[in-house]
């Protein structure tokens, strides 16, 4: 199938090559690696109120700013580190969001200690297997679900910040807890075949 003929999700701006690569290679692929999960949670929480593409363009900046998403290093960031990051043009310079990332790193480690990994904790909200959505058009995409509401509520109870039900649902979509590729998107079946029903 040629690149021109490939059908992709209706939300994707196919004029942006980096966005297409993200959609084709990462979005919706089940993810179990804690470092990547911390990266995705950090990026999603930074996105709140902004477009995802804005954050995607700054992904390398976030990687540098937050120690390659080493959760133990980020958890040790001090008030001075937050001040330093407020001057970093590679990320969104929002003090509350930067402080939230440091806070969330500490909470992330607490979950790892309790559950063995953040992945074990996260995947329980979908009974440890991806939910396959039935989406025919852009109007079929939900903003939140029961699972994202339960997940967000539990994160909040554990002290996480900037991770409400909508942001958590975006995280669930990104890391494949739900396969939200549209029914006519070529990636939907590829991911189902690679990871099972």
Spatial extent as radius of gyration: 17 Å
Distance between the termini: 24 Å
Global shape? globular
Q: What string, H for helix and E for strand, traces the elements in order?
A: HHHHHHHHEHHEH
Beta-strand fraction estimate: under 5%
Q: What's the helical proportion of residues?
A: 40-55%
Descriptive account of the structure:
With 197 residues, this protein is mainly alpha-helical. It has eleven helices and two strands, in the order ααααααααβααβα. It has helices at 17-25, 34-47, 52-57, 59-65, 71-75, 79-85, 95-115, 118-123, 146-157, 165-174, 186-195; strands spanning 131-132, 178-179. The protein has a two-stranded parallel sheet. The longest helix is centred in the middle third of the chain and has 21 residues, at 95-115. Helix 2 crosses helix 10 (165-174) and helix 9 crosses helix 10. The model has no long low-confidence stretch (mean pLDDT 94).
Chain-wise SSE layout:
Layout: H1 17-25, H2 34-47, H3 52-57, H4 59-65, H5 71-75, H6 79-85, H7 95-115, H8 118-123, E1 131-132, H9 146-157, H10 165-174, E2 178-179, H11 186-195
Parallel strand pairs: 1-2
Helix pairs in contact: 2-7, 2-10, 9-10
């Amino acid at each position: 199938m040629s690149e021109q003929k490939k059908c992709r999700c209706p939300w994707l701006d196919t004029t942006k090559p980096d966005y297409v690569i993200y959609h084709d290679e990462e979005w919706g692929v089940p993810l179990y690696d804690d470092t990547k999960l911390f990266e995705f949670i950090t990026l999603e929480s930074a996105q709140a109120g902004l477009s995802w593409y804005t954050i995607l363009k700054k992904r390398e900046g976030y990687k540098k700013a937050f120690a390659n998403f080493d959760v133990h290093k980020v958890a040790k960031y001090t008030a001075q580190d937050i001040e330093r990051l407020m001057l970093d043009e590679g990320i969104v310079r929002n003090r509350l969001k930067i402080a939230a990332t440091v806070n969330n790193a500490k909470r992330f480690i607490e979950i790892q200690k309790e559950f063995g990994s953040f992945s074990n904790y996260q995947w329980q909200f979908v009974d440890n297997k991806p939910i396959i959505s039935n989406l025919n058009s852009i109007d079929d995409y939900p903003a939140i679900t029961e699972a994202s509401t339960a997940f967000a509520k539990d994160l909040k109870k554990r002290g996480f910040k900037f991770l409400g039900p909508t942001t958590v649902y975006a995280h669930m979509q990104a890391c494949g807890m739900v396969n939200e590729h549209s029914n006519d998107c070529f990636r939907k079946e590829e991911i189902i075949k690679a990871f099972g029903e």
